[in-house]
Amino acid sequence: MPSGSNRRDTPALADLPPADRFCDSPSDNPYWNESVWFSVSIPDKRIHGMIQYYFRPNMNMLNGGPVLWDASGHNSWDCRHYNWAHLQALPPGQEKFNMQANNSLAVKVLEPLQRYALSYDHDDLRFELEWNAIGPLHELKTGDAGQQATAKFHIEQPGRMTGTLTSLGETFSIDCFSMRDTSFGARDYASLASGGYFWGIAAESSFHAIAMGKGREQKVIGGYLYRDGELSSLASGVRRIEEYGRFGPKKVVFEATDKLGRQLSATGSIDEGLLFTGYTDHTVVWSLVEWDWDGITHWGDNQEFAPAMRFRQIARGDIELGTGE
Q1: What does the alpha-carbon distance between residue 277 and residue 75 come to, in Å, rounded to a whole number?
Q2: What pLDDT is stored for residue 279 in this prediction?
Q3: What is the pTM of this model?
Q4: Among 86, 175, 297, 299, which has the highest number of CB atoms less than 10 A from its own CB?
Q5: Pairing mode, if any, of strands 296-307 and 217-227?
């Protein structure tokens, strides 16, 4: 059972807010998608990962699972753990945040929009974790047609992940900043172009953004700034890539203004990360990031995405990172 199951019964489905349950009026599109994602990391060990799953109810399928990596391996076949499983039948009676997958991943609402328990025990990875919100949720509304095609409803929320995790025979005490998101909609990745999805969290502030473009300077199309107890959507912004690694950005500058007129300027140092191909029609370089925002370290990640064909061209050396070709 999920961690914390003996501490509190799962709230009744009728009592859950919309962000904690399946969409009340889904379409019959076979690609209708209900997603959940949490990050987990051990920054001093440069270990980073995700706990992500997708319901495809009209296909009777459940995709996803935990992925964990560090500098020792950058692919699904050589990272610390990879069980992002595509071929799972949807177990009967599952709820969005009260579920147990066939690959052993279990998630449970402990307190709506505030606390979630997560557990897993398969092959060389085990964990008992609890996620606690440290800020309000934010609904991502970009106005970008490609992004809107991948999710009708999409929220992010900053939090803290605690518990224990055993990987490759070593047990770690987890106490890290963690972003979560959840979404629903007919997921159409074919419409998604190149860009970056990134965020950073500290004890009393956080930010999230999505930037689109192939070049070294990319326009921010959505996100939030949370500071001094107040959350606001971003009104404008830009991300400039100062240095590239092998497959994605290595050093970036992020500047933005929120709808309250507050400004943000942060620099990010990005690890090499994982080459994630779980979405099949586009590739993501998924990395741990150490951000400096006004002298305060904000830990987070960078998800640099590109259509699969473009990424193959980059990997083969046919085109260069940062160019429109």
Answers
A1: 9
A2: 86
A3: 0.92
A4: 299
A5: unpaired
